[in-house]
């Protein structure tokens, strides 16, 4: 019996690296890994797969030597394991390169790119293909509620992958998505983001133009036709382009309406009726996501009926407008919003889905871009749909120079000057107390952070439940 290949992942706890660990595990490899303290959902996935994961980094984790080491893009020089790999000349690679070599070479690669909506769109497409019996492979940077996890080898021709423009590894500073060999490329909204590695919007645009340039002539690009920048970065493509949008494009959504908290619309292809959609995912941005999925699924041969059925049964993605619970008549929603546009779209969708009662927006600036003052003014205009706004302290503020850091107190002052009821409350305790004193039945609280935020969702629900019980007892 041949020895199983041993692959060790440095930085296994990231969503992409955990997904790669799952693919390697499914393909028969012995997988080990290391990272800092791990938290759900990735910690739960790794436990379910019974992988050997070390907390902390130590060169001893590489004894005996693995057959291959994968270095995550969060790993920097000075990491004990990375240094040992270099010193010993051990075989090593990056996550995107290994994905390309092992899992995309013989598949129809469908790459989902853009500043916003990648995780939702990739999850939606993977589910539509799977529900139609196409058995796709996929790797998604989040936790789809309908699929068995963020990754799957699959046996069908298509492999759906979330294409991130962030850099690949300390030894490869190019974008991850340049490794993914797109046969079909979905390009959503393109905006400035990742202020820690990109200088400005022009650099972002250049990156997407290069991605466009590697799609083969036999391939296809599905682009957000309503957005000028998206059109600009894809115009020089050597393959057919199909646009999608609410205002223009080959694929268009018309007659949008809400039906019992479900989004409904009709789809036109080339101006002709294609199908009618009703789905749980609310908001115009999710209609745009669905149009991209419809175009890609149609290219894969799915019928309008199969596509409509898949979208109708799609339940969404964890931490994307996810209802975490309701206590005392108050809903608590969890969302990953990591950019001013995402904040605006999230709150707009929440307002549309829950039009009754007040909408509370609670934001923890946590992503690398949100922690910087590059979005100070943009954030001021992102809370239009909210009735009440709470801004928490900048996470890890000591890692950002003071002259580059977002000023949450100044943001709150600006919002208040615009007539918005806003408060700066640094910690979770103060936020829970503030909301518990202010909410009333029928309200919706949208918590936005790309981290754990001190377990604020559970703490809010516990506090609202306690208050409701007290009120019921006449206290």
> How large, in whole angstroms, is the Cα Rg?
23 Å
The helix fraction, in percent, is 25-40%
Overall residue-averaged pLDDT value: 93
The appropriate CATH architecture of the largest domain is 3-Layer(aba) Sandwich
Largest sheet data: 10 strands, mixed
- Distance from N terminus to C terminus (CA atoms, Å) equals 70 Å
Strand order of the largest sheet: 8-7-9-6-12-13-14-15-16-17
Key structural traits:
alpha/beta, 475 residues, globular, six-stranded mixed β-sheet, 24% strand, Rossmann fold, UDP-N-acetylmuramoyl-L-alanine:D-glutamate ligase, ten-stranded mixed β-sheet, Protein-Tyrosine Phosphatase, Chain A
Description of the molecule:
With 475 residues, the protein is an alpha/beta fold. The chain has three domains: 6-93, Rossmann fold (3-Layer(aba) Sandwich); 106-313, UDP-N-acetylmuramoyl-L-alanine:D-glutamate ligase; 322-470, Alpha-Beta Complex (Protein-Tyrosine Phosphatase, Chain A), CATH 3.90.190.20. 32% of the residues lie in helices and 24% in strands. It has 14 helices and 23 strands. A ten-stranded mixed β-sheet has the order 8-7-9-6-12-13-14-15-16-17, sandwiched between helices. It has a six-stranded mixed β-sheet with strand order 18-19-23-20-21-22, sandwiched between helices. A hairpin with a 2-residue loop joins strand 18 (322-327) and strand 19 (330-335). Helix 6 packs across helix 7 (228-234) and helix 13 packs parallel to helix 14. The longest helix is centred in the last third of the chain and has 17 residues, at 456-472. The termini are far apart.
């Amino acid at each position: 019996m041949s020895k199983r290949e041993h692959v060790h992942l440095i930085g296994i706890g990231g969503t992409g690296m955990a997904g790669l660990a799952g693919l390697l595990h499914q393909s028969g490899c012995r997988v080990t890994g290391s990272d800092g303290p791990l938290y759900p959902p990735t910690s739960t996935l790794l436990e379910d797969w019974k992988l050997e994961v070390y907390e902390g980094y130590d060169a001893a984790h590489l004894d005996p030597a693995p057959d291959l080491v994968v270095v995550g893009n969060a790993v920097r020089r000075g990491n004990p394991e990375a240094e040992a790999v270099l010193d010993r000349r051990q075989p090593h690679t990056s996550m995107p390169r290994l994905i390309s070599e092992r899992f995309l070479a013989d598949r129809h690669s469908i790459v989902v790119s853009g500043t916003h909506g990648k995780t939702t769109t990739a999850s939606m497409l993977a589910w539509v293909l799977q529900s139609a019996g196409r058995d796709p492979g996929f790797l998604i940077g989040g936790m789809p509620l309908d699929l068995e996890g963020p990754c799957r080898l699959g046996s069908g021709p298509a492999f759906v992958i979330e294409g991130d423009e962030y850099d690949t590894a300390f030894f490869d500073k190019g974008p991850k998505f340049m490794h993914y060999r797109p046969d079909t490329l979905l390009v959503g909204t393109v905006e400035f983001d990742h202020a820690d590695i990109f200088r400005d919007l022009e650099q972002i645009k250049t990156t997407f133009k290069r991605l466009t340039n590697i799609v083969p002539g036999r391939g296809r690009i599905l682009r957000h036709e309503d957005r000028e920048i998206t059109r600009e970065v894809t115009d020089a493509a050597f393959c057919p382009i199909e646009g999608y949008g609410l205002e223009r494009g080959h694929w268009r959504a018309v007659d949008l309406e809400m039906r019992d908290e479900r989004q409904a619309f009709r789809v036109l292809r080339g101006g002709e009726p294609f199908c009618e959609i009703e789905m749980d995912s609310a908001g115009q941005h999710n209609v745009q996501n669905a149009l991209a999925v419809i175009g890609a699924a149609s290219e894969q041969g799915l019928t309008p009926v199969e596509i409509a059925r898949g979208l109708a049964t799609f339940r969404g993605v964890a931490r994307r407008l996810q209802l975490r619970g309701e206590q005392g008549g108050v809903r608590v929603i969890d969302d990953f919003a990591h950019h001013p546009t995402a904040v605006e779209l999230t709150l707009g969708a929440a307002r549309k889905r829950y039009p009754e009662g007040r909408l509370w927006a609670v934001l923890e600036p946590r992503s690398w871009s949100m922690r910087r003052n590059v979005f100070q003014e943009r954030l001021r205009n992102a809370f239009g749909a909210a009735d009440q706004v709470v801004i928490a302290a900048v996470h890890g503020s000591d890692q950002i120079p003071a002259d580059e850091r977002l000023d949450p107190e100044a943001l709150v002052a600006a919002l208040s000057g615009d007539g918005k009821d806003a408060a700066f409350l640094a910690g979770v305790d103060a936020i829970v107390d503030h909301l518990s004193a202010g909410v009333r039945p029928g309200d919706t609280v949208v918590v936005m952070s790309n981290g754990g935020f001190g377990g604020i969702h559970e703490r809010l629900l516990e506090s609202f439940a306690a208050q409701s019980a007290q009120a019921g007892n006449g206290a």
